[in-house]
Amino acid sequence: MDNSQYFILEDESTRDEVLGRLKNGLPLTGDRKTAKKQLFLDTYDHRLYKKGLLLTYEDGCLMLRNTGDGSSLSLDLPADGGIPRFWQDFPEGPFRDNLRSVIDIRALLPAIGIDSRVTHLDLENEDGKTVAHLNFEDVEVGGDNTDKTVIHLLEAVPVRGYVEEFENLTRYISDLGLGPAEGNIFSIALGASGKRAGDYTSKVSVVLTPDMPSGEAIKIILKSLLETMRKNEDGIVKDIDTEFLHDFRVAVRRTRSALTLIRGIFPESVKEEFKTEFAGIGKKSNELRDLDIYLLRREQYTEMLPPALRAGLDLLFNIIVREREEAHREFALELASDSYRRSIDAWEKFLYEPEVPGVALPDADAPVIGLAKIRIRKRYKKALKLGKGIDGSSSDRDLHTLRIECKKLRYYLEFFESLFPTDEIKEVIRHLKVLQDNLGDYNDMYVQQERLKGYISKMNASESGGRESIAAAGGLISELYMKQKEIRSEFHGRFGEFAGVEMRDLFDNLFSGN
Question: How confident is the model at residue 358 (pLDDT cuts 50, 70, 90)?
Fold first, then answer.
């Protein structure tokens, strides 16, 4: 077991006082001293931390520890190599498998470094058995030598089979005037450096109230989306992993969707100006994202083909890698350009500067709950109408139109989620997501086939490897087409669930009235 409990000591004198009182009041033994230098690693969005895992690097060894049950895995790294960034860079085995299941396509990054000097003590019972451990830790957190924060901690560590003794120990410590700290050493160290563990999310995490003025509510939503964009810019430019671009693009699309809400609240000119700006930003990132998707699915595509065709696919992916490098260079330059900065600065000015008289329209003061219900109902009805019109003869464009409408509905639901009962609106979003996954997968199959056809048209069979690449691309197109047909056959079942009586009743209950 683990479930250690930390207590924060105000300063060195507090540490010395508490240490003395514990030694005088409890049967403690040991008094061993150690020092350690650790680097905590996690993804940008702290996926390991959110799953109760801590990944540390110390003296050439990586340790992956479960803070819930205390179990751990270790991996010694070669002396001449750095710390792997992605799960596939690790040697095969349990360590790699555990990382893969959590971090997926995200890169591991240094999160915080600590230098600790630790005094270890053991608590014994009347039989001389150790029933708990105490660690007094002086911890230097992050930064360089001139920018370190020092914190003093007391860690109480349980021993399996002695739950009552551990509870008595933590109660005894609390009676000394020490309150238990929230979290573990990772979150405490981050907090000391001015950060918060798990504070990044790509979701729209805003809290609105039903009577909040619509203009104020919409600006809160838009500010949150701008913050997400800004947080991901650096990761895109540095090409850390593909999720930075993904989250950035979603924030841009959500912003464009939220701009449709301001009709009657802010002047139409505001909507048109910034909708055009954000449409341009999104369009300039399309090529990079399309190529990212190809590379992320490389393993999947390879498995689709018989072994005889796979060498040709390798040649094709070499082309995609080169194109992706150029697409990344171009979009990184776009994010650093004066035109992009001017657009974002103008947008920030609109969101944060005090209202100019005459900019907000009368509907800006109307309660947001009415706006939310009206706009969600409208999107829902349009999605139903489009979906019911799709049959066996409908074109790919028809399904694409429905996909876009469902995406807009999803964004509206997420914008206003805090206004409605949690369980009910999450159920609506869950059903919608099932339909969206079907439509999104179908569209992906179409886009990927079209791109492969483009590669074939530019290939020369007489060049080295050209014939093999054309054969591989053709084989992959065939497999993608069959997969697309399979996805299409599932559409009516997915849409039927979304458009069924249960969902219609739920929509009516949540979004009727003004």
Answer: low
The CATH code of the domain that includes 325 is 1.40.20.10
Give how many domains the chain has, as a whole number. Answer: 3
Q: Which two tokens stand for residue 484?
A: 């697309």
2, 62, 66, 135, 137 from 116: Cα distances, Å: 20, 17, 21, 11, 6
Is the same domain home to 223 and 126? Answer: no
Pairing mode, strands 53-58 and 28-42 = antiparallel
Query: For the chain, what's the residue count?
Result: 514
Summarised one tens digit per residue, pLDDT across range 390-414 is 998 999 999 999 999 999 999 999 9
Q: For residues 71 and 152, state if they share a domain.
A: yes
Shared domain for 316 and 372, answered yes or no, is no
From 128, 157, 192, the end of a domain falls on 192
Q: pLDDT band at 359, cuts 50/70/90? A: low
143 and 260 together in one domain: no
pLDDT greater than 70 at residue 352: yes
Within a domain: 486: yes
CB 131 within 8 A of CB 165: yes
Which pair of structure tokens corresponds to residue 75? 């991996």
CA of residue 506 relative to chain centroid, distance: 29
Host domain of residue 505: 367-514
Whose structure tokens read 């007391």?
A: 154
120 with 265, same domain? Answer: no
Average pLDDT, the chain: 93
Same domain, 304 and 418: no
pLDDT higher than threshold 60 for residue 145? no
Task: Out of 99-113, 143-157, 193-207, 332-346, pick the least confident.
Answer: 143-157
**β-strand partners of 56:** 40, 63
For residue 146, is pLDDT > 60?
no
3-state DSSP assignment of residue 213: strand
Does residue 360 lie in a domain region?
no
The CA-atom distances, in angstroms, between 217 and each of 351, 411, 475 are 11, 15, 51
Q: Is residue 199 a part of any domain in this protein? A: no
Q: Which of 162, 192, 222 is the last residue of a domain?
A: 192
CA 142 to chain centre: 24
Confidence (pLDDT) at 387: 96
Token readout for 174 is 């609390």
Check: pTM over 0.85? Answer yes or no.
yes
How far from 184 is each of 2, 7, 20, 57, 391, CA to CA, in Å? Answer: 11, 10, 24, 17, 55
Comparing CA positions, the residue from 212, 176, 297, 292 lying closest to residue 244 is 292
Gap between the Cα atoms of 461 and 468, Å rounded = 8
Q: Is 153 helix (H, G, I), strand (E, B) or coil?
A: strand
d(Cα 60, Cα 64) in Å, to the nearest integer?
14
Q: Are 153 and 259 found together in one domain? A: no
How far is it, in rounded angstroms, from Cα 123 to Cα 348?
57
pLDDT for position 142? 80
Closest CA to 291 of 448, 105, 460: 448
Task: Tell me the two tokens of residue 506.
Answer: 């739920």
Give dist(CA 247, CA 437) in Å, integer.
Answer: 17
